[in-house]
Design a protein that fits this description.
The protein is of the alpha+beta class. It is 54% helix and 11% strand. The chain is globular and about 50 Å long. The two termini are 17 Å apart. The mean pLDDT is 96.
Length: 214
């Protein structure tokens, strides 16, 4: 079963969705064999290198009040805790550009370490409050994911994979993806949002039965 996980590393619901999906896959182990591919989606493709204060950004983008934002942050923190992911809201003060992180993820796919890198990128940003646009941070996180840091640095210091990432982003936009996470199974079935593990488990079992040869 092919799973395309369309997401951004600065999307909290994507971190929740991935943890939920992983738990669901553990539950159906032996019944469903899944191959996950992480696809790029930028929530803020025009974000400058300095980033932006998160409260300011969300106010401008969504018009939400400080009280609404605080409630949303608490909901995200609780949902993360339910699936074993730690959001440290006190350390996440800015929104950053994530294009280079997506270039590194594209490279990591060919190294067999894409999933590990994705998980470590979520941890770096949401748990430790680190800047995912920083090449120093990205190289460090690549090492944490078991990838070659010198190769990672070489990718980041060049423009390697920029065209490939843009092409993939465009492909998924043309496919109708407007929000993330978007989980596409076998290139036909879409599950949107950071759903609970039960939702993913039910979908995986149902789709696995549908895909069985007659």
């Amino acid at each position: 079963m092919r799973i395309d996980f369309v997401s951004d590393v600065s999307c909290p619901w994507c971190a929740i969705g991935l943890k939920s999906l992983e738990q669901a896959l553990e539950r159906v182990a032996g019944e469903v064999e899944a191959d996950i591919h992480f696809q790029p989606f930028e929530l803020n493709p025009g974000m400058g290198p300095e980033g932006q204060d998160i409260f300011e950004h969300i106010t401008e983008k969504y018009g939400s009040t400080p009280a609404q934002q605080e409630q949303s942050r608490e909901t995200i923190r609780q949902r993360g805790a339910e699936v074993g992911f730690t959001f440290d809201m006190s350390k996440r003060g800015r929104i950053y550009n994530t294009f280079d992180a997506h270039r590194l993820l594209h490279w990591a796919e060919g190294q067999g370490g894409q999933r590990a890198l994705k998980e470590k990128l979520f941890e770096a940003y949401f748990t430790r409050g680190e800047d995912p646009s920083s090449h120093a941070v990205l190289v460090q996180v690549a090492g944490e994911a078991g990838l070659d840091q010198e190769q990672a640095r070489a990718v980041l210091e060049s423009n390697t994979y920029a065209d490939e990432v843009r092409q993939r982003e465009y492909y998924w936009q043309r496919a109708g993806i407007r929000s993330v996470p978007a989980i596409v199974i076998n290139e036909r079935h879409l599950i949107s949002g950071g759903q609970p593990p039960d939702v993913f488990e039910e979908a995986l079992r149902q789709l696995s039965r549908q895909e069985e040869p007659a």
